[in-house]
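subagent[fold] <- orchestrator: predict structure for attached chain, return tokens only, no commentary.
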Amino acid sequence: MKLKKLLLNSALIAGLSTALISCSKNDSGPEETKVETGASGTYSIFLVDTNRIRSANNDGTNVKLITTVTQSSSKSVYISAMSANPERTKIAYMVRKGNFPAYSTELRIVDFSGSNDKLLIAINDNSAMPGNVKFGSGGVVYYNYFLGTSTKFYSIKDDGTANTLKISHQFEDLSNDGRYLLRYGFSLDPTVTPIQVLDLSGDGGGGSNKFSKNLTFAMPSMKISSDGTKAAGIFRSGTTVKLLLADINANTTTEKTLGTSSDAFGSLFISFATDNKTLICTIGSSTSSKTYIYSIEAGTSTSFTNINKDVMQVYGF
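subagent[fold] -> orchestrator:
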């Protein structure tokens, strides 16, 4: 069974993850991640495989375990999101744990090598659902979770101190400095999907509009570049999988074709590599998971098949 990406065209944020569990290959323990260098910059590939974070080469080979969260007897433990710090030394991730009817949501941190996995904060509320996480500059981790129809948005230092409640913005992603916040997905009109970037330094800290567009299709996954100048989303148009590329400063968008997928219910996920010019795009189905490495400048991509069909999120940090 697989991790599924759910769109919430309601007061909840779009892109909230929920999951079922799968069986995976055996791992002997954490190993050092493979760092890729080349024309597209320096970054590492990380795969979320239900309750595990793995590293891989940018062709999908040399898969190694970074960390794993013990699976529960009800097979309900899953990682909802992860993010690496700009220094590329640590990973923050959110995980849903427990057995029915007692669940908890945790924000955890681990070194790139897989060592020093530790708890930053636990939300011990059965109704809490994990959302997104962004490991920003200065050792600040931004995270959100959901309680019913409300969204909780916090920042915390990577040493576990200074846990601070932010203005309750739904967020899908943030720039490294925490200034630009990407959100999308709620509209009273079901045929419209608004996307917006807020400048959180504006309006007395409440956030002023930096970028906004109304889409006429669903957007399963979208991210902002670490410098806050670009956003990119991945979506379906029939059996064609497309990319939406946004220039935040110019307030313009363009569409590009990435590939095809005949599974209308399969997952789609996108992330930026650290160079802000490379997109990591993952297309899931009931039988397989495939990742594309897309160059924004060249308009070309390479691809590989993931270790199993339960890899629904692949990142480049």
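orchestrator: received. Logging for downstream: The mean pLDDT is 87. The longest strand covers residues 90-99.
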